[in-house]
C-alpha cells in the first residue's frame, strides 16, 4: 500500500535523477519520468518567452503559467516546485531588478542546479530554497504572485499545499498554476503505477475536486485560464493496460487535461474556519 511518504520518496528519487539529465533526455519520456517510452506528452515550448534560459529548461512542465500570472514590475513571485529554475528566470524578466523571485523545491539536486544557473547568470534577486510545498519555508503574507508548473498534482495532500499557498500570499495576491487534472476515473493500472505517478498523470485528481479544494481553502475569483487535452499514446498505455483495457479506456469518456488555473486571496486575508469571517 502506498503511503504519502512512499509517494513523496518516489517523486523525490525520480526528480533527483531528472536533475542530472538533459532536456532532450527528459523530453523522450513522460513528463520527465524514466521508462515511459519516447513521447513528449505534457511540455509546452518556452523558448519564445523573455527570460528563457535553455540550461534551466528540463522539459518538465505542462503549461506556461507565467504567461497568465499577471506579474508586474516589482512583484515578489514564488514558484512552487521550481526545478532547475526555468519559470523563475522567466518570472524575473517580468518583475525586473526591483522585484524578487523565490523558488522552492524538495529535491536537493534540483535546488543545486537552479542555484548554479542563477549564479552563472548573475541574478541577485532570484533565490532557491529547499522545502516542501505543504510546509513552505516562507513567512505569511510574503509574496504577490505564486506560480507552479505541473507540480501540485504530484502532492498527495493537495489541500495542505493550497493552504500554504494561501498563507504566503499577501492579501489581494493571486496564483496562476498549470497542472494536470482528470474528467472521469483513470484505470487502476495507471492510478497505481509509481513511475506514472512521478510522470504526472496518475497523481492527478478530478478537475472539479481540484477546483473545490482551491475554493474551500478560501481563494476567490477562480478561473480556468487555459485547458488543453492530453492524449496518452497506445504504446505508452500498453505498459500499464491490456489491449482490452486500452480500448475500454479510450471509449470511456475519461479525459486528461493540462489546465492553468487562476485564483485570488481576498484582501481581508481571512481563511475559512479561522473564525475571522
Task: Give me a quick take on this structure.
This protein has eleven helices and eight strands. By secondary structure, the chain is α/β, with parallel strands linked by helices. The chain is globular.
Question: Overall mean pLDDT score?
Answer: 83
Oligomer kind = single chain
What top-tier CATH class fits best?
A: Alpha Beta
Approximate strand percentage: 15-25%
In CATH, what is the homologous superfamily? Vaccinia Virus protein VP39
Total domains:
1
Fraction of residues in helices?
25-40%
Key features?
about 280 residues, alpha/beta, Rossmann fold, about 35% helix
Structure description:
- This protein has 277 residues and is α/β, with parallel strands linked by helices.
- It has one domain: Rossmann fold, CATH 3.40.50.150.
- The chain is built from 11 helices and 8 strands.
- Strands 1, 2, 3, 4, 5, 6, 7 and 8 form an 8-stranded mixed β-sheet that branches.
- Helix 6 links the parallel strand 4 and strand 5.
- Helix 1 runs parallel beside helix 5 and helix 6 packs across helix 9.
- About 4% of the residues have low confidence.
